[in-house]
Amino acid sequence: QVQLVESGGGLVQAGGSLRLSCVASGRAFTVNNMGWFRQAPGKEREFVAAFNRGSDYYASTVKGRFTISRDNAKNTVYLQMNSLKLEDTAVYYCAAGPRTDSYYPVSVQDEYPYWGQGTQVTVSS
Predict the structure, then answer these.
(1) C-alpha span between 47 and 64 (Å, rounded)
(2) 22, 6 contact by CB (below 8 A)
(3) Is 94 in a helix, a strand, or coil?
(4) Distance (Å, whole) CA 54 – CA 4
(5) 23, 5 contact by CB (below 8 A)
(6) Is the distance from CB of 118 to CB of 65 less than 8 angstroms?
(7) Tens digits of per-residue pLDDT, 83-115?
(8) What percent of the chain has pLDDT over 70?
(9) Spatial CB neighbours of 119, under 8 Å, sequence gap ≥ 6
(10) Coil, strand, or helix at residue 11?
């Protein structure tokens, strides 16, 4: 029902910035309950940032450097990534969470029924 398409990944120098975009389509979703996850080579996918009930949530590894935002009219969620580090290198995925006004554990991947294809972010020295 929901399609998510990420874009904006690429190669960037350490200390630089990138902005990822995720355009959502379909009826069974809310742009207010969206998350970003990432998977580094040889590692499991991990939580990065999310919206839930109008609040922003961040993994401790990115808090203060990354910012999640949205444009409801465009059905688009963004992830602004500043002060990038080598360890930020990963495939970044956006995910649509449950269509609810209630709280849910935003860092739990099983809470998200829909996922994008991912976009590669590579940070170089």
Answers:
(1) 15
(2) yes
(3) strand
(4) 20
(5) yes
(6) no
(7) 999 999 999 999 998 877 788 899 999 999 999
(8) 96
(9) 6, 7, 8, 9, 20, 91, 92
(10) strand
